[in-house]
Every structure is written in C-alpha cells, then in structure tokens.
C-alpha cells in the first residue's frame, strides 16, 4: 500500500517537473533574451530580410544544361566536365587547395595522381545560390561582372556575343576556353598527348595567343561539335539537336549563348539552397540558433567587423579587398604571383584584391582562400586580423615570399585594422555562427544527376 502511494507521488512530481521543463523551453522559444534583443537591432540596422526562394523546376532548358554540365564532350580532350571540379557531394567544389584540370582523371584527391595534369592556381568556387541577382561579380577577381551601366563585363570586352540572359550564363561560357581547365593545348604547345590536346576546338589558322580570337573560334567549333549540321549528324549530335530545340523552341540557329544560358539555368536550379538556421532565426524562430551561434552573430555584425565586407543575404559585398594572403609561388600571373582584381582592370591599385567570398555553406567548402592556403576556418578568420603567422610560415623555404611580404601588406585593406583582436573563444563562436549558414540544395541529388549523357561517356556522371 505504502509502496503504491510513493509510486503515485513520484509520478506526480515527475509530471510537475515535466510541465515545468516544457514551460521553461516554451519561455526560451518565445521570449527574446538579451542577445536576441541586440540581434533584432542588428537585423533592423542592416535591413536583413528573410530570404525568398525563387520557384524553379527542371524544364527543357535546365535539362539541356544538365547534359552539358556532365558531358565531357564539352572539353577539348574529353576528360573534364563541370562536375569534375564542381562536385555536388563535396559542396560543389573539389576539396583541393587548387583545381586540377585537363590531363587528369577522377575527382578530388584522385586528380593529384596524374603527372600530366595541369594545375589551375586558384581554389574552386562553389555554386550555391549563384542564380540570385545579388551575385553581381563572378570569379575570384570578378572578371565577369555587371558593369556600371548594367552591361556584362568579361574578358571578351565588346566581343562578348549578344544573347546571354544573365551574368551566370556569361561566366559559364569561360571554363570551356581555358586551356588548363577544359580546352586543352595545341600540338605545338606541348599538347600532343591525347589527354591534353584540344582536338578540333581551335582551328590551325587561329593564333592561339590571341585570347579573343581563340575564344570565339572555340565557341563556334563547340557548337559544331555538339550539333553537326542538320544534314550530317552523328546520333549524339541529333540527340543534342533535339535537346536544344526543346529548350529553345523558337530558334533553329544556335550559338554559345544557348549553351551558357542552359548551363546557368541548370546551375541556378541544382544549387539553390534551402533556408538555413540563420534564415529561420531572421524569420522569428528564436530557438533556431544556439547561444554560441547568437554570440558569434553578435561578433560577426559587431566588433568583428565581418559584415563590412561579408554583407547582404549572401554575405558578400561583391567588391574587392586585400587581406594579404601569401602567394606560395603559384600565382596565375607573371612571376608566380596572383594579382587578382588588377588583372581584370589593369589598375595597379587593384593588386592582390579578391572578391569577398560569399559565406553560405562556407563550412563545407574547405580549404579556403583564393589559393586554398587556409586549411581551417580558424586560420582563415585569424588571418584577417593578424596576417603575420601565416605570412611568416609561408616564407620558410620560399625566399620570394619574403621579398613580396611588404607589397602584400601595403595592399591590405585598412578596414581590417578595425577588427577587434578576437580571442579563440570569439573565433569559435563566429565559426558556430557560420555553421548556422549551412543548408542543403532544394533539389535532391537524384533529380540533379542525369542517368546518361548524349556522348555516352557516362562514367563522368559523379555525385
Ligand atoms: C578544372 C576544374 C574546373 C572545371 C572543369 C570547371 N571549373 Fe568552374 N571553377 C573552377 C575554378 C578554379 C574556379 C575559380 C576560378 C577563378 O575565380 O579564377 C571556378 C569558378 C567558376 C564559377 C564562378 C563562381 C563564382 O562564385 O564566382 C563559375 C560560374 C563556374 N566555375 C562555372 C563552371 C562551369 C559552367 C563549368 C563547366 C562548363 C566549370 N566551371 C568547369 C574550376 C573548374
Ligand atoms: C576588408 C573586407 C573583409 C572583412 C572586414 C572580412 N573579410 Fe573575410 N574575406 C575577405 C576577402 C577579400 C577574402 C578572400 C581573400 C583571398 O582569398 O585572397 C575573405 C575570406 C574569408 C573567408 C574564407 C572564405 C572562402 O570561401 O575561402 C572566411 C571564412 C572569412 N573571410 C570570414 C570572415 C570573418 C569571420 C570576418 C570577421 C572577423 C571577415 N571575414 C572579415 C574580406 C573581408
């Protein structure tokens, strides 16, 4: 009898305790605490609005883009596709510090094993939300960007073909003409090995050193390779002809802009992101962020000064800044330097400046920095307010790095001097905040990957 009574009493207490707990958690979920009140002010001050999702679906144009994205027929020697370096399961990058282009095989680390392969001395950029109109500058140096009068600026200048629907479509038409990325080389420039030869994509009459002439030539040869002529077509070409016709029902003349527009349509669809925990918080769900993430957000928008450059819904101002990243003797330009923005504008003042990287899913796209120098997010963040440790480390065994250290520092943004020296716990909180910017693409991998491509080289369809 007594035992039964105790049991009953215990149950009563347990029940009361449970009610108390849910009351507390309810309070936490709905009552803003001190951090929430500060962050509310941040959201108002920076006019941060909940993200909206553009409705898209896999139509005929996206379908064509999907084929072109995964088909190695787009590359000179038929051994790279967009998906070779922009690997869906690796956060739409390759996980390497710098991309490995034509002449290699496989994805990720496997690509380092080929002795003939060409290295592209830049870190691969991801595709998340690249269809959004806020992306007004593309590539690390913004060589494809929206100009002041709203026109598309690109390395082709006024030779850029007319008909591109958006900036992403313009950018998607440049990997095919980069010799080390997808095009390959002519025989007289050491491309006689099949794996690095551009095959029929550059005519013998064309000067391979004349970038604009060569590029336009590649564009017309690529269209010929994909479509043949209406009277003489291989089975692959007639399949592509059907796909192009379905994607663009009112035209029968196709050029590079149709390729670029289709690739852009596919990339916009396949890598559009679901709202992240941060977006749910902005919408009003106060329990969407942990206490540490709220702390990190306060630093990001406050004393860390991150938002001065990493601003807006994509966390980039789409402008160019220098943060004195060591060069590692591997730059894209003369003397193994990477002049970044200066190569696109021709202005010395733009040297060593790079586009502020957008930060959605940045936790998934390491290593970081334009040359993949940062192996952890801690390193990347610390380098903003104290570049000395990594600059010093980079000088070991590289005398040239010491010679340019002063130059790198003189092009370093003065905004960085305003960053409050961050304690390790502050940096950890900011990283926790960056984790709240993580989310998966809306489209499942099943829908994003094709079953086969018209060339039949289906082994290049990698997730
Ligand atoms: C060999 C590896 C490689 C291949 C193949 C490749 N890319 Fe890239 N991609 C890169 C690298 C490296 C960057 C950064 C280059 C830079 O900014 O200078 C990049 C950047 C981009 C960007 C800019 C993104 C941004 O945030 O600004 C777009 C768009 C893009 N690639 C599209 C494509 C498309 C479309 C294809 C296929 C037609 C393709 N890439 C094939 C390596 C590759
Ligand atoms: C002066 C503008 C500026 C400020 C302020 C700034 N950043 Fe950056 N950030 C950049 C630029 C530019 C790069 C790329 C530099 C490069 O690779 O050469 C970068 C790179 C990064 C990267 C690596 C991203 C990637 O995809 O490789 C992270 C992470 C980052 N910043 C976070 C932060 C955080 C956190 C703060 C605040 C403590 C901050 N940044 C403040 C401009 C800035």
UniProtKB/TrEMBL annotation:
It holds the Pfam family CCP_MauG. PROSITE patterns: CYTC (PS51007). Residues 60-175, 291-438 form the Cytochrome c domain. Transmembrane segments: none annotated. It is found in: Cell envelope. InterPro entries: Cyt_c-like_dom, Cyt_c-like_dom_sf, Cytochrome_c_Peroxidase/MauG, Di-haem_cyt_c_peroxidsae, MauG-like. Keywords: Heme, Iron, Metal-binding, Oxidoreductase, Signal. This is His-Xaa-Ser system-associated MauG-like protein. It comes from Pseudomonas shahriarae.
């Amino acid at each position: 009898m007594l035992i039964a009574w105790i049991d009953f009493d215990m149950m009563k207490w347990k029940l009361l305790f449970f009610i108390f707990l849910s009351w507390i958690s309810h309070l936490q979920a709905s009552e803003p605490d001190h951090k929430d009140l500060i962050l509310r002010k941040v959201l108002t001050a920076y006019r941060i609005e909940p993200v909206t999702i553009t409705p898209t679906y896999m139509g005929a144009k996206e379908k064509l883009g999907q084929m072109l994205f995964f088909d190695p027929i787009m590359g000179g020697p038929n051994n790279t596709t967009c998906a070779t370096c922009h690997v869906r399961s690796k956060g739409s990058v390759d996980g390497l510090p710098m991309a490995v282009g034509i002449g290699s095989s496989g994805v990720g680390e496997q690509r380092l094993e080929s002795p003939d392969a060409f290295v592209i001395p830049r870190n691969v950029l991801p595709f998340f939300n690249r269809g959004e109109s806020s992306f007004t500058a593309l590539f690390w140096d913004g060589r494809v960007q929206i100009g002041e009068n709203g026109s598309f600026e690109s390395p082709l200048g006024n030779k850029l073909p007319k008909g591109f629907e958006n900036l992403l479509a313009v950018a998607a038409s440049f990997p095919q003409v980069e010799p080390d990325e997808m095009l390959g080389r002519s025989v007289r420039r050491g491309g006689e090995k099949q794996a690095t030869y551009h095959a029929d994509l550059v005519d013998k009459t064309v000067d391979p050193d004349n970038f604009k002439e060569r590029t336009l030539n590649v564009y017309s040869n690529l269209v010929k390779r994909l479509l043949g002529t209406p009277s003489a077509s291989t089975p692959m070409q007639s399949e592509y002809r059907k796909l192009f016709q379905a994607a663009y029902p009112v035209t029968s003349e196709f050029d590079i802009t149709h390729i670029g527009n289709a690739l852009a349509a596919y990339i916009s669809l396949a890598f559009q992101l679901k709202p992240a925990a941060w977006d749910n918080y902005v919408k009003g769900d106060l329990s969407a962020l942990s206490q540490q993430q709220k702390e990190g957000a306060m630093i990001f928008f406050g004393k860390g000064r991150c938002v001065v450059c990493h601003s807006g819904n994509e966390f980039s101002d789409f402008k160019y800044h220098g943060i004195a990243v060591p060069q590692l003797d591997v730059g894209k330009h003369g003397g193994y330097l990477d002049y970044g923005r200066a190569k696109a504008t021709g202005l010395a003042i733009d040297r060593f400046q790079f586009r502020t990287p957008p930060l959605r899913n940045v936790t998934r796209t390491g290593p970081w920095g334009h040359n993949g120098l940062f192996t952890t997010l801690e390193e990347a963040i610390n380098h903003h307010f104290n570049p000395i440790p990594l600059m010093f480390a980079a000088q070991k065994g590289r005398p040239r790095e010491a010679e340019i250290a002063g130059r790198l520092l003189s092009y370093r943004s003065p905004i960085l001097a305003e960053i409050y020296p961050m304690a390790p716990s502050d940096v950890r909180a900011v990283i926790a905040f960056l984790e709240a910017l993580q989310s998966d693409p809306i489209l499942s991998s099943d829908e994003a990957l094709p079953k086969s491509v018209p060339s039949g080289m289906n082994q290049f369809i990698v997730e």
